[in-house]
Amino acid sequence: MKDNSVFSRLLLVFAIMALFAFLRIFIDLPNVSPVAAIALFGGTVIGRKGLAVLLPLVILLASDAVLGFYSYFLMAFVYGSFALIAVIGFWLRNRMKFHNVVLASIVSSVVFFLLSNFGVWAEGLWYPMNVSGLISCYTMAIPYFRYELIGTLAFSLMFFGMYQYATTKIKVFKAA
Asked: Mean pLDDT in runs of 10 for the chain (176 residues)?
C-alpha cells in the first residue's frame, strides 16, 4: 500500500507542476510565472534529489519549446537559477511551515533576479561590461522583480496548499 501512496504522491506532484507549466503559456503578465515555484515545490516534495532538480528543468524546457527558445547563453543562467531554487527546496523539506514557504519563495525570487540579470549583463549585448553596466542592468530590472516575486509567492502558496490539502484530505494520497 505504501508503494501506491508514494506513486500517487509523485503523480500528484507531476500533475501540479505540469498543469501550471502549461498555464505558463497563457499567462500574459510580465515576469509572472509559475516556474520558480515549480522548482521550489519540486525540490521540496520530490524525494530523489536528482529528480527533484531535473523534473522542473524538463518542464521548463518543454514550455520553452512551445513559447520559443532564446539566447542559449542566457538560458544557462535562467536554468541554473531554477536548479538552485530546487536546492532551496531541499532546505524546506523538513521545515514545511507557512512562514518558511514564504521565506523560501522570497529567497528563490532573489536568486532568480540575481542570476538571470547577471546573465543578461554577462552576455554583453545590452549593457557595458563594467561595474557601471552591471549596476545599470540590475537597476533596470527592479520593476520586473516585483512581478516575479508576486508570481513566485502566489504560485508557491497554491502548490504547497494544494499538495497539503491532497495529502491530508484525499485518501489515495495519504501515507500508509
From this structure: 62 72 68 85 90 88 84 94 96 93 97 96 95 97 92 92 80 58
How many Cα atoms are found within 13 Å in the side-chain-facing hemisphere of 112?
30
The domain that holds 37 is classified in CATH as 1.10.1760
12: which residues sit within 8 A by CB, 6+ positions away? 163, 166, 167, 173
Nearest one of 1, 115, 84, 93 to 47, comparing CA atoms: 93
Give CA–CA dist 32/86, Å, rounded: 18
Give how far the C-alpha of residue 104 lies from the chain's centroid of Cα atoms, to the nearest Å: 11
**Full residue range of the structural domain in which residue 24 is found:** 2-173
The count of structural domains within the chain is 1
